[in-house]
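Q: I'm writing up a methods section and want to include an example of the input and output format. Could you take the sequence below and give the corresponding predicted structure tokens, formatted cleanly so I can copy it straight into the document?
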Amino acid sequence: MSADAVITVEGLAKDYGHLRAVDGIDFRVLRGKVFSFLGPNGAGKTTTVEILEGLRRATSGHLSVLGLDPWKHASELHRKVGVMPQGFRFFDKVTPREAVRYYARLFGVRTDPDALLRRVLLSDKADDTYDKLSGGQKQKLGVALAMVNDPELLFLDEPTTGLDPQARRAVWELLRELKNEGRTIFLTTHYLEEAEQLADWVAILNHGRIVTEGTPTELIEKHGEGPRLVLQASPELVSLLSQQARLGLTIRDGTIQIPIHQKAVLLDALNTVARSGLPWPEINTERDTLENVFISMVGEIDESGEVRGA
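A: Here is the clean output for your methods example:
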């Protein structure tokens, strides 16, 4: 593995009785990068992350986090990493400022609570008790506490859950700043746009196995359908365009979709539409996103934003 790898994983497996939750996976996380771990519920993401954090023991395989065995050297490792677990919770009657001070004492470090809370856009709630915070504000506190010990490596499990779009993008900017400072971020999220925007490398896990990995752009190019022209059209126009075999059109969700890998195909389609004199209320181009790739490979996303296996 590369000397720049902060995390190396080879043949990692975890069994719970007869259930194999993680099935011999390999990956690495490079220093100063954002690595996004994606997968439907029950895919093995949380188990893998907890093994990397030294909270669970692997059944088999080799792994190294910051040069340490997470299970054998958990105490040393925990001083070097920041962790925001899924479903982060804290004591109801403790304020964010008190929480930061408490974590600083646990780690034996000095920190400026007010500066840290400003950084996560929580300074106006510094003296409110935890039980008075909104869901999004609680998530921000979780990010702040993960940063108390000035970690080299951050494990962030769904850090923007419950945030409104503006607050979510503010956290994205914070994560970009942390990356620019040279920190490494291991991100799990069910917001596929978040992974596409932030991640340098994405690994998609399904049924305990990594089914694909690469940069977001590589995954879209490899598994997506490519750019296409999309028209809302009448049945007459659909019939006319269907007669041109080279267009390779498909009908999907009440629209005509024509691949446009070549400019000549795009021009042919537009000229045919223009010459027909038939009405078409809308025309645009589309290309796949990481969400399209994810759904096609492992499952669907329900109304709450959670992912379900195929």
